[in-house]
Amino acid sequence: MPNLTFADWQARAQDLKIEGRAFINGQYTDAVAGATFECVSPVDGRLLGLVASCDEADANLAVANARQVFESGAWSRLAPAKRKATMIRFASLLKANAEELALLETLDMGKPISDSLHIDVPGAAGALSWSGEAIDKIYDEVAATPHDQLGLVTREPVGVVGAIVPWNFPLMMACWKLGPALSTGNSVVLKPSEKSPLTAIRIAQLAIEAGIPAGVLNVLPGYGHTVGKALALHMDVDTVVFTGSTRIAKQLMVYAGESNMKRVWLEAGGKSPNIVFADAPDLQAAAESAASAIAFNQGEVCTAGSRLLVERSIKERFLPLVVEALKAWKPGNPLDPATTVGALVDTQQLNTVLGYIEAGHSEGASLVAGGKRILEETGGTYVEPTIFDGVSNAMRIAKEEIFGPVLSVITFDTAEEAVAIANDTPYGLAAGVWTSDISKAHNTARALRAGSVWVNQYDGGDMTAPFGGFKQSGNGRDKSLHAFDKYTELKATWIKL
Fold it and tell me: Interhelix angle for 98-109 vs 198-210, to 10°?
């Protein structure tokens, strides 16, 4: 892969062809009602194109096609080894089109092109291939039965899956769902966020090129209150999988109860604590990690380490290290390969983040870094990574998910106090622990009510470990073999011999 320059990416951005139509039954198509919405780049405010604004009619059409192909068995009853080969081809096509997909992701969502190219696209492709590789290695069970009985426990694809994915990692989050959903033989109707729909629309065609039958993967761009709601209420959607806010996750549970009791698997918000004890093995590494944990992807990360809990005895020594480390995270044009922090996804999110920064001031926290909108002359939506000290867990900036680069620093004196502060949140997605004491690491990790706990690092793990949360961070689990449980039904077959 050539090392493209800033000028190269700018030139490619000018020449890029944008596909904004829905994808139903193997074809790009306008929304049934002909409605569209504008897709505006947060990089500089340019209009990228018009995108189909789907609604209930489109959902009905896509679900009907998804159901028809599922019942036909063209994909659902295909031998697992053959589905595996197709999924691996699908992954390879993402890699072959990596530069186009990365450019779409950056222009659409605002993240740095280096992240799109080297993190998001490979991560998405890896999710598809890992799930595909696994599917012919997952065995069913034979129950322990009397000699004249045979008990079989088999997994069957659940049917039609509605997948609703967020705007912060549009391609990767989609593929975290598509990997196990497709590998297990389901049909999928994918609804990307209206804030960043372009890569989901593009990979639908790549799925056809890989050999996935028409109708197995459909993509419906549009708004949550229209097409998203239609999928969640649809009587012929068997499962809804979702990554996004806790507020929307709760609404999807209501819709499931109001319709057909469809299974709902929800991965929702976070307000993750990053706990640094005085005996951390490397304070410089901890400081650099704390900076990246809040600034990476512009802080638009559900697992962002947005609460930095620091033992009081090292606070005066440690906080300056974090402030200094944050200087490496400076917003710039996302098409520049040297940029580490891009633009917030849109003006609405910009105003939300600036509102929280104002709340930090008004509630008495002390601003020690950042705190301003910058590069306004570009037409883009850029905010400096921000640190507030003197924060209490009662402040809005410590309680509420900001989804932007705003870090709250909270001090503690004992491990018990650190755990109490960390758990004092409705969320339970992730946490970090920094200590040289192996017993303290284990005991703290065990006490934290979080789906992922990282020790002496932040945001560790790969496809082999499950990802999801406790409490109001939801019940979903992506990645690992555990993810396959969301997309299969268990059937017990009891045979008298």
Answer: 160
For residues 156 and 224, membership in a common domain is answered with yes
| Claim: this prediction has a pTM higher than 0.85 | yes
| One domain for residues 69 and 50 | yes
Enzyme catalytic residues:
267, 302
Give one DSSP letter per residue of 93-120, joined into a string: HHHHTHHHHHHHHHHHH---HHHIIIII
The tens-digit pLDDT sequence of the chain (497 residues) is 578 999 999 999 999 999 999 999 999 999 999 999 999 999 999 999 999 999 999 999 999 999 999 999 999 999 999 999 999 999 999 999 999 999 999 999 999 999 999 999 999 999 999 999 999 999 999 999 999 999 999 999 999 999 999 999 999 999 999 999 999 999 999 999 999 999 999 999 999 999 999 999 999 999 999 999 999 999 999 999 999 999 999 999 999 999 999 999 999 999 999 999 999 999 999 999 999 999 999 999 999 999 999 999 999 999 999 999 999 999 999 999 999 999 999 999 999 999 999 999 999 999 999 999 999 999 999 999 999 999 999 999 999 999 999 999 999 999 999 999 999 999 999 999 999 999 999 999 999 999 999 999 999 999 999 999 999 999 989 999 999 999 999 999 999 99
- Tokens 């410590």 belong to residue: 398
Split into its structural domains, the chain has a count of 2
Are 334 and 110 in contact, with CB atoms under 8 Å apart?
Answer: yes
Are the CB atoms for 489 and 476 separated by under 8 Å? Answer: no
Residue closest to 449 by CA, chosen among 477, 421, 407: 421
Give the CATH number of the domain where residue 311 resides.
3.40.309.10
Domain-located, residue 86: yes
Can you tell me the distance from the alpha carbon of 170 to that of 164, in angstroms, rounded to the nearest whole number? 10
Same structural domain, 159 and 219: yes
* Pair 184, 123 in one domain: yes
126 and 264 fall within a common domain? yes
Specify whether the CB–CB gap between 267 and 177 falls below 8 A: no
Which pair of structure tokens corresponds to residue 386? 């921000």
DSSP three-state, residue 454: strand
* 217 strand-pairing partners: 188
Q: Are residues 382 and 332 in the same domain?
A: yes
Q: How far apart are CA 286 and CA 275, in angstroms?
A: 10
Which single residue is written with the structure tokens 């761009």? 221
Range of the domain at 83: 6-268+474-494
Q: Which of 228, 258, 257 is nearest to 242 (CA)?
A: 228
The enclosing domain of 12 has a CATH number of: 3.40.605.10
- Identify each DSSP E strand in 365-441 by its residue range: 366-369, 373-374, 382-383, 386-389, 406-412, 430-434
Q: Which of the 8 DSSP states describes residue 212?
A: P
Q: Judge whether 288 lies within some domain.
A: yes
Q: Does residue 182 share a domain with residue 313? A: no
Q: Is 133 contained in some domain?
A: yes
